[in-house]
């Protein structure tokens, strides 16, 4: 196994190693898809395609009262995108845990990482084909892309433990997130220009959106080359027990059964995961539903919402670096806990923002940007301290099932509240419960005790 310590990186080192620099680039690569496709475009676009199927000839901005028939279940067109994310995460709950167990026993985890990343990039690129009323194709491709994204991130996140010593992980994780927001913001800026000049280029708005979806998939695939090549000499772990006669797959299945039985040995890790389930579901639902909220509830043009999200990307770049610095002084646990209070404020204020109030919407976006990157980056590094060595991917699979656009309970609640009230305002304010419960649970996690339970070294500041 190649690790930060094996490669001579001192515990107090502050300079990035070649492995760390290569690792950062996958945040840059996949964030283009997460930002352009999942966060900004796919929710409103899939909703418009679903409305075209359910209510042909519907005027722009009009409400569609006809439900779609999804496997015999009536679904409001406005709830299709949140429900699709819910389904992808329910499947992830099973798939990603298995992927993690296999990855820990794979002699070449980078190859497995590459396979999932490029399969996801292909599915993301093929979203270009979703047009007219073909919402079924959009649902299938979005689920496939999200499953592959989650699978690749299980392996990617687990490599943090192998390329960075305990005292380096807050810094390394924060820099990765910061680069991700820079990359996602750059492509979003290019797509912002495209969506604003599509008439001059002879493109319809729908075609401009489809080209933007294609660009996000291609960006994801091309830039994945950098971490794949830079981490190709990182081998599988030898610290986890391997049943050679059972093979990689058979041994992984047996190890999974042991892992669930052994979780009670790591009560602080389990408590952190439970807290993360709640507050990350809230964060991911706010991120994934904000463009839908801005367009459908606050009545902004899609180009306006895209511009506001572009601002969020670059504010989040600085926010991630800022939170990394704060963690060095105050500890990542305290910083993340404080950020949850800010998220609660964000959701509360969003409920009261009047339709068309651009200044209030922009101010809210800046506040989101400040806490967005930092809370996610430090959650990743916090969790890395709480997992036993040699089982990083297996434990990160539990973490990743609740990560980014794969949250399930939050999107389900958001979609359900909208379906019951026909209002995105009540849907967004319902998310307060996720931040409150997540904060209460996180406040009870005893980090130092959990790090010792996992057999890891304590960082200088917990």
TrEMBL record:
Transmembrane regions: 80-100, 112-131, 137-156, 177-195, 207-229, 270-294, 300-323, 335-353, 359-378, 423-442
GO cellular component: plasma membrane
Domain of life where this protein originates: Bacteria
UniProt entry keywords in alphabetical sequence: Membrane, Transmembrane, Transmembrane helix, Transport
Chief location: membrane
A molecular function (GO) term: transmembrane transporter activity
Stretches assigned to the Major facilitator superfamily (MFS) profile domain: 270-462
Keyword Transmembrane helix carried by entry: yes
Taxonomy of the source species: Bacteria, Bacillati, Actinomycetota, Actinomycetes, Micrococcales
Locations listed in the record: Cell membrane
Membrane topology listed for this record: Multi-pass membrane protein
Protein name listed in UniProt: UMF1 family MFS transporter
UniProt keyword annotation of Cell membrane present: no
Provenance organism: Oryzihumus leptocrescens
């Amino acid at each position: 196994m190649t690790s930060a310590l094996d490669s001579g990186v001192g515990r107090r080192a502050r300079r990035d190693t070649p492995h760390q620099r290569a690792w950062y680039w996958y945040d840059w690569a996949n964030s283009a898809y997460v930002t352009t496709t999942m966060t900004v475009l796919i929710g409103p676009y899939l909703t418009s395609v679903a409305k075209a199927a359910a209510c042909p000839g519907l005027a722009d901005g009009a409400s569609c009262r006809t439900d779609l028939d999804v496997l015999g279940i009536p679904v409001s067109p406005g709830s299709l995108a949140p429900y699709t994310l819910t389904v992808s995460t329910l499947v992830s709950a099973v798939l990603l845990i298995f992927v993690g167990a296999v990855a820990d026993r794979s002699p070449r985890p980078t190859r497995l990482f590459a396979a999932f990343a490029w399969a996801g990039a292909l599915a993301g690129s093929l979203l270009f084909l979703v047009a007219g009323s073909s919402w079924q194709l959009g649902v299938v491709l979005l689920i496939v892309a999200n499953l592959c994204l989650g699978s690749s991130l299980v392996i990617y996140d687990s490599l943090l433990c192998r390329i960075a010593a305990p005292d380096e992980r807050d810094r390394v994780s924060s820099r990765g997130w910061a680069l991700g927001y820079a990359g996602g913001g750059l492509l979003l800026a290019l797509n912002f220009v495209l969506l604003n000049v599509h008439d001059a280029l002879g493109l319809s708005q729908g075609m401009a959106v489809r080209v933007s979806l294609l660009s996000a998939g291609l960006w994801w695939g091309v830039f994945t080359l950098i971490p794949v090549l830079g981490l190709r000499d990182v081998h599988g772990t030898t610290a986890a027990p391997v049943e050679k006669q059972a093979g990689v797959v058979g041994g992984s299945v047996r190890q999974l059964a042991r892992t669930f039985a052994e979780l009670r040995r790591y009560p602080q890790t389990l408590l952190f995961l439970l807290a993360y389930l709640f507050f990350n579901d809230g964060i991911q639902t706010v991120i994934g539903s904000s463009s839908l909220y801005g367009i459908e509830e606050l009545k902004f043009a899609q180009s306006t919402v895209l511009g506001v999200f572009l601002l969020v990307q670059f504010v989040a770049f600085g926010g991630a670096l800022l939170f990394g610095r704060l963690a060095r002084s105050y500890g990542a646990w305290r910083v993340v806990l404080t950020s949850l209070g800010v998220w609660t404020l964000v959701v509360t204020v969003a409920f009261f923002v009047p339709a068309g109030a651009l200044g209030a919407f922009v101010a809210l976006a800046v506040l989101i940007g400040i806490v967005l990157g930092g809370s996610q980056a430090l959650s990743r590094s916090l969790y890395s301290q709480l997992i036993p060595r040699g089982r990083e991917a297996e434990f990160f699979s539990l973490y990743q099932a609740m990560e980014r656009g794969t949250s399930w309970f939050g999107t389900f609640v958001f979609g359900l509240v909208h379906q019951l009230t026909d209002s995105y305002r009540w849907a967004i304010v319902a998310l307060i419960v996720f931040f409150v419960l997540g904060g209460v649970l996180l406040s009870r996690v005893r980090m130092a005790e959990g790090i010792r339970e996992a057999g890891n070294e304590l960082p200088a500041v917990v």
